[in-house]
């Protein structure tokens, strides 16, 4: 099929080129005028990335002469998988980086001398680097890769634009680079899961709006009349994260030449908005987005339809309407009025129903295919992730109750809870999705080695179990020691004594983290070998979007 050429720069190419040229000049001006060294460094990076992007846009134009990429070839959708490949590779890179930093700070907690008395290797700077790397860099790139793949396949339509998909993927990773280097250099708002300073937040907002337009544009162009349920979850994730991000990061910069800013919220209102954001970052970034992955990749891998499509729709609407109210349970026993935190706990308890409904739907999708768990470690990993999702969404509402929270809050129990969800649910469903995506994207028959997937599964599972059980025991012991009184009514233990008691569990936690990192390295090697030496697919596979609901 002959490719149509216009010979002219398209409106999209020209628009993005002009925007990026203006951005490069703005960054250079700020870098030249600021006395803030971190701002100068970040603006220099921004100018460089913008200039390189303009060069790539025009290089692409001169290479293809303004070629118009057809939406279909021989009657079949001409999918755009280039940005999906990049996001998948970036996810694996950032994942290993984030997991490794997590291991380093776990070792620092066990042996504080490993802070090395250097500002950029201090726990206080590495901890937000770890959380942002694993949540936003690893998890975010997994969501970008899978959402761009799934929406094209299930809509049987190519993503709109030549530059737009690449702008979203590369722009998001530029945000990760700016935010991560900012933490190491001490530039942070000091807000949990919202540490990047105002200019990074502003850039992410621009990228995120384009991401929403890209996703909606693909749905608008769909050839499939039905919008598959996974796309509803992705859409809820994109829209809600935008609202959360903008509201929680409403700041007034001290100066456009300074990294510093002042939040518009004050006092308890700031705390309320922060944990409305913080809990819903978990609810919509780490839950809704990854449930979309569950609803696409588990049926595909199991070669079975979703157990109940009706239940998946109920799951969707119940989850998004209830989850958004649960945040105040983070603020029991604080200046927040008790009715507000109790309301948050109430909605957390109600969340048991949609959460477990989704878990049951995911597990029961394997009806008639349970035997595949013996032979397919990728499917086993995804099914275990759904089991972790069920356990975490049982434990979370339990911990939101005031009586339980009075023991668990500020202790390592919370750390164990978070990591059972992060490593077991988010980690395993992400690994499963990447194990599926890489052979599909690079047209390989299968993974290089299922045996290596088996090793990855068992090594990392042992690591997760060691991690969360150590933190459960450590956290409950910590809470009990804090509230212990002697016969005279004085505290029975000093704070230092509680820290000393936790030391063995911190070593076990670090060991569990090390096993998880080893598992990720095994995975990276397996995916690399799949791309380089995997057996090529002989014929074009059936469309991966042909998922029929089953009732």
Descriptors:
iron; 17 helices; about 550 residues; single chain; two-stranded antiparallel ribbon; two-stranded antiparallel sheet; mainly alpha
Describe this structure in words.
The chain has helices at 11-33, 37-64, 82-110, 123-155, 164-185, 198-220, 229-248, 267-302, 309-323, 338-350, 352-364, 372-375, 377-400, 402-408, 412-441, 450-482, 495-533; strands at residues 4-5, 67-68, 72-73, 76-77, 251-253, 261-263. It has 551 residues and is mainly alpha-helical. The chain has a two-stranded antiparallel sheet. Strands 3-4 form a two-stranded antiparallel ribbon. Strands 5-6 form a two-stranded antiparallel ribbon. Strand 5 (251-253) and strand 6 form a beta hairpin. Helix 5 runs antiparallel to helix 6 (198-220) and helix 15 (412-441) packs parallel to helix 17 (495-533). The chain is globular, with a radius of gyration of 24 Å. The protein starts with a strand and ends in an 18-residue tail after the last helix. The model is unreliable at 541-551 (pLDDT under 50).
């Amino acid at each position: 099929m002959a490719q149509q050429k216009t010979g002219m720069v398209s409106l999209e190419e020209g628009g993005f080129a002009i925007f990026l040229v203006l951005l490069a000049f703005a960054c250079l001006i700020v870098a030249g005028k600021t006395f803030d060294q971190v701002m100068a460094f970040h603006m220099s990076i921004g100018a460089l990335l913008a200039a390189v992007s303009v060069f790539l846009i025009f290089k692409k134009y001169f290479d293809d002469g303004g070629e118009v990429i057809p939406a279909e070839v021989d009657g079949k959708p001409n999918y755009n998988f280039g940005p999906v490949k990049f996001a998948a590779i970036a996810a694996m890179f950032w994942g290993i980086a984030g997991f490794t930093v997590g291991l380093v700070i776990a070792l620092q907690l066990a042996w504080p001398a490993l802070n090395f008395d250097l500002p950029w290797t201090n726990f206080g700077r590495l901890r937000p680097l770890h959380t942002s790397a694993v949540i936003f860099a690893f998890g975010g790139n997994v969501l970008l890769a899978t959402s761009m793949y799934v929406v094209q396949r299930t809509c049987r339509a190519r993503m709109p634009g030549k530059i737009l998909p690449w702008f979203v993927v590369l722009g998001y990773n530029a945000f990760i680079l700016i935010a991560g280097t900012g933490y190491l250099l001490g530039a942070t708002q000091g807000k949990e899961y919202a540490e990047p300073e105002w200019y990074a937040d502003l850039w992410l907002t621009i990228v995120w709006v384009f991401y929403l337009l890209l996703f909606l544009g693909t749905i608008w162009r769909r050839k499939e009349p039905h919008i598959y349920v996974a796309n509803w979850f992705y859409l809820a994730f994109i829209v809600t994260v935008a609202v959360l991000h903008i509201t929680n990061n409403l700041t007034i910069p001290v100066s456009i030449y300074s990294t510093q800013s002042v939040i518009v919220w004050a006092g308890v209102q700031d705390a309320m908005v922060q944990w409305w954001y913080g809990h819903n970052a978990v609810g919509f970034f780490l839950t809704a987005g990854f449930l979309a992955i569950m609803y696409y990749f588990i049926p595909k891998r199991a070669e079975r339809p979703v157990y109940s499509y009706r239940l998946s729709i109920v799951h969707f609407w119940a989850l998004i309407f209830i989850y958004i109210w649960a945040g105040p349970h983070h603020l029991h026993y604080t200046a927040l009025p008790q009715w507000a935190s109790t309301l948050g706990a109430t909605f957390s308890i109600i969340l048991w129903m949609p959460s477990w409904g989704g878990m049951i739907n995911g597990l029961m999708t394997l009806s008639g295919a349970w035997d595949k768990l013996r032979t397919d470690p990728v499917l086993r990993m995804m099914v275990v992730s759904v089991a972790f999702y069920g356990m975490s969404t049982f434990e979370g509402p339990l911990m939101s109750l005031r009586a339980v929270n009075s023991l668990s809050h500020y202790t390592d129990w919370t750390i164990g809870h978070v990591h059972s969800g992060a490593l077991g649910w988010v980690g395993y469903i992400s690994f499963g999705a990447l194990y599926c995506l890489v052979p599909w994207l690079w047209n390989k028959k299968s993974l290089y080695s299922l045996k290596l997937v088996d090793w990855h599964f068992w090594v990392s599972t042992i690591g997760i179990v060691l991690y969360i059980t150590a933190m459960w025991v450590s956290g409950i012991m910590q809470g009990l020691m804090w509230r212990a009184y002697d016969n005279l009514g004085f505290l029975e233990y000093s704070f230092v004594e509680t820290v000393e008691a936790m030391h063995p569990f911190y070593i076990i936690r670090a060991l569990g983290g090390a096993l998880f990192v080893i598992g990720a390295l095994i995975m990276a090697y397996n995916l690399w070998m799949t791309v380089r030496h995997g057996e090529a697919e002989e014929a074009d596979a059936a469309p991966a979007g042909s998922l029929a609901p089953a009732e």
